[in-house]
Every structure is written in C-alpha cells, then in structure tokens.
Amino acid sequence: MGTPFDFNKKLQKARQSMGTQNDAEALALYAALARRFPQSGLLAEYGRAAAVTGDFDLADQIWQKLRHREPNNAVLLSQIAWEYQNIRLHGKARELYEQAAAVEPRHLETQLALAWFLARTGGVDQARAAVNQCLALAPREEQARYLSAHLDCRENKLAAAESQLRALIAEVPRRPQVCYSCHSELAHILDRTGRFDEAMNQLAEGKQLVRPTAAEESARKRIDAWHGDVLARIKTLPKDILDTWAGTFPARARTAPVPLAFLSGSARSGTTLLERILDAHPGVAACDEPLAFSSILPSIDITVPAMPPPRLNVLRQRYLKNFLKALGMSGAGKILLEKSPSKTPWLPAFLRAFPEARIIIALRDPRDVMVSLYFQNQSNTNGLAFAQLAEYYVNIMNLWLAVREWKGLVWLETRYEDTVADLQKEGSRVTQFLGLPWHENQSRFYESNREKTVMSTNYSDVTRPVHAKSVGRWRAYEKQLAPVLPLLEPYCKMFGYA
Asked: What is the pLDDT of residue 463?
C-alpha cells in the first residue's frame, strides 16, 4: 500500500501540478494515488481536481464511486452534492442533498443544506417542507427562520415576512451573510410597498456588515484591471480578426458542428428571462451559466494568428461534452444556448473556438441595472456602492462595444423593456435570429420554468408571466443614483434610454 511518506510526497506533487496547470500530470498522479490509497478524502480531492481541469465525466465517476461506497454518510453526501452544485450539475446535486437528508433526518446542517438549495432552485412547496424540517429540529435557528421569511415573501405574504425579518435583525444574527440577507429581503419588501428611502436605509445597514475587506477590495481591483487588459488586447486586434481566425480554422476543419448561441450582457439586464423564453422553444436547449466554457478558457489564446485546428477541436468537444452534461440531455437537433451574463470578456475566446456562434446581448436601462445590482443579494457584490457597480457596468459594456465592431460578427441586441412591453413581438425577433419561428410554448415559458432548476436571484420573476414593474424603477432612487448618472449617460443615449 505504500508508506505515509510516499503518500504525502506524491499528493504534494499532484497539488503542485494542479497549481501550475499541468492538468494531465496532476490527474495521472491522483489516479495512481487513488489506486494505492483509496481513501474517501483523497477520492473527493481527485474528483475536485478532475472538475477543475474540465473533465466533468471523470469527476462524476469518482463522486459516484464515493457515493456508493458510503451511502449512509450524510456529511460526505452533502459535500459531494456541493461539488455537483459547484459545477452546475444541479440535478445530481439535488439528488445527493435529498439522499443525505433522508439518511440523517435529525442532522441540522444536512437539512439546512437541502433547504438552502431548494429555496434557490425550486418551488416554494418543496423548499417549505425542508425549511419546516429545520425549524422542527431548531426553532430558533437563524438560517431556517430567514429562509421561512424568504419563502413568505415569494408567496406575497409580505406582512408576515416583514415581521419575521425585523425580529431577526433585532436579534443580530451571528452569521454576517444571514444578517445581510435579512436586510436585503426586507429592503425588497419595502421597495415593493413604496417605502423607498427606508429600503435604501436597510441596504446601507446591511452593506456596512459585509463591507469588502482589504483583500476583497484588492481582488476587485485586479478584476477591473483584467477587464482593462482584455479591452486593450481587443483594441489591438484588427476589425477583420474573425476572417483571420476563420482562415486558419475553416468550417471544413471543425468537428462537432452544432448550432450554438451565446447570451450575455451586463448582469441584471434580463438575461434569465430571455433564456427562459428561448428555452421554452422545443428547438432550443438553454443552459444557465454552465462552467463548460471556463473549463477551456485558459487554453485559448486570442493574440496568436493561428491555433492548430486539432487543438481547437479538442477544446470544442470538451466544451460541448460538459455543456450537454450540465443540460442533462443530448441536445440532438436543437440549438444550444449558453446564458452567461457579465461574461462579455470571454466573447473573443468563445469566437476563437466557435467562429460560427451567434451572439445575443441583453440590454436594459443602465439606471435600472444599477438599482437591480444594488438590491441583488450576491456575496461578491453585496458590499459594493453605486460607484463601484457603475464602473463594473462601464467595463462590461465597453468590452461589448469593442467586439461589436468586428467584421462578420453575427450579433443581436435585445432590450428588456421591449420584451416586457410585447413578449411575442420581441421574443419572435430574437427567436428568428436563431433561425427558428416563434412557438406557442414561449408565451407560457413560466409554466415550464416551475419544473426546472433556475439558479438566479430572480427565480420568482421567471416563474410567472412577464410584467413591467421593474421598468423605470430607478426613478424612485434618482437622488441616490445622482453621483453616477453622468457616467451612465453616454450608455443611456447609445442604447436608446436617453
């Protein structure tokens, strides 16, 4: 079996190989270690390494082996569920969370993991049962009480939700994220009931609790710098770069030819709504923020005139394999649509691998985008002020505006406001851009969404008919937005929101 010294030495080498992105060597080392030292902890790490390198099939095989080896280990099952969730394989994540909860029905952390997952991805009834189980085990548990209030809010029981949230806030939850979530949820209620200044006050109090640390602020600045670097590189490329790339990677040299579309734009621009409308068409298979492309992104260089076609084909095949795995279906005969808001910096690399892809950019009044981002409960943006959110928006849209100039790019911009004003008219225009006629199912997209996983903070909005309540929302917060309005004004004019 080998000695502990051998094990630690080889494990360290495998980790070093992962750190230097020597994927093949790392996986070979993990595989050898797993054969000699078949420990659960090592197998879990091996599976995670496989997922990081983009081999989702291998990760799945390893995690399934672990699952069947220890079917009654609720903690391990929950950990594997989280791994599946992390690579957007939500169907398998749910299956594992539910198995873990059934194994240990009185284990609070296991029940909470299931409750959180269902509250984000499923209907209220399913999530409510899980939350109630948590409250039966620990009636004062702050996470379960917050989730109960969140579900009340989704059912439009606003008075009950507000009462619960105020009580929780008064007790000052121990977990900062739970505390922020209470302030955020209460702010949404106040916004919906016209108490706009109080909504802003609640968000301000919450944001004080999760103000970015020095390290987090440094990381944000690095991301901004990366956006700037990507934009600078894009601007060095000639506007006919797609012709150059196509010349070295012509259609006849490409394997895995499939109709493919990429839906992007700034976050909170209606991408989830549009993706759900398109996915309701029987000829479209849409996936919400899969990690399929991130698994090949590091291997694509947009600065070299030519990449070997065999290498690009390997990357295309890996992407499609992981995309279809996230879909949980074959996708045969369908147009594949990836929805990844705010991934506009990836567009050049995406087009490097898939020159035939159609690009859809979702637009929305930049001022409404700011308000929606500010209200959004996302750990990586909760502590940001309007000024920082405006910088993010400007960076993303500048990247798109640069790529939009490329000759031969097949693209379409669609405005959220046009969709909510006339679903069939604007939905038909976007559907026809994909080469398909409007389908009657698309008018009732929200019905199918109730049966699907929607990993978005606006789950409730895409499981009911479209409405215009969020159009012009920014006017209630004009005084708070005032400092960033000059920065947003050029984009308002450019996209027709002057």
From this structure: 58
Q: Identify the sign of the CA torsion 60, 281, 338, 317.
A: positive
For the chain, the farthest-separated pair of C-alpha atoms sits apart, in whole angstroms, at 71
Q: How many CA atoms lie within 13 A of 81 on its CB side?
A: 26
Amino acid identity of 82?
A: W
Sign of the torsion angle spanned by Cα atoms 17, 21, 23, 25: negative
Of 22, 73, 20, 19, nearest in space to 43 by CA: 73
Q: What pLDDT score was predicted for residue 460? A: 56
User: pLDDT tens across 456-484, in order?
Assistant: 555 555 556 777 788 999 999 999 999 99
Pairing of strands 358-363, 284-288: unpaired
C-alpha span between 314 and 65 (Å, rounded) = 27
What does the pLDDT read at residue 122? Answer: 77
Residue 64, burial from CB neighbour count under 10 angstroms (0-12, 13-18, 19+): middle
| pLDDT tens, position by position, 283-321 | 999 988 888 888 888 889 998 888 999 999 999 998 998
Q: How many CB atoms lie within 10 A of CB 414?
A: 23
List all residues 6 or more positions away from 109 whose beta carbon is below 8 Å from its beta carbon. 75, 78
Q: Are strands 284-288 and 335-339 parallel, antiparallel or unpaired?
A: parallel
- pTM for the whole structure: 0.91
Residue 336 three-state SS: strand
List, in order, residues 6 or more apart from 273 with CB less than 8 Å away. Answer: 416, 419, 458, 461, 462, 466
pLDDT in tens, 138-171: 999 999 999 999 999 999 999 999 999 999 999 9
Domains and CATH numbers, the chain: 233-494 (3.40.50.300)
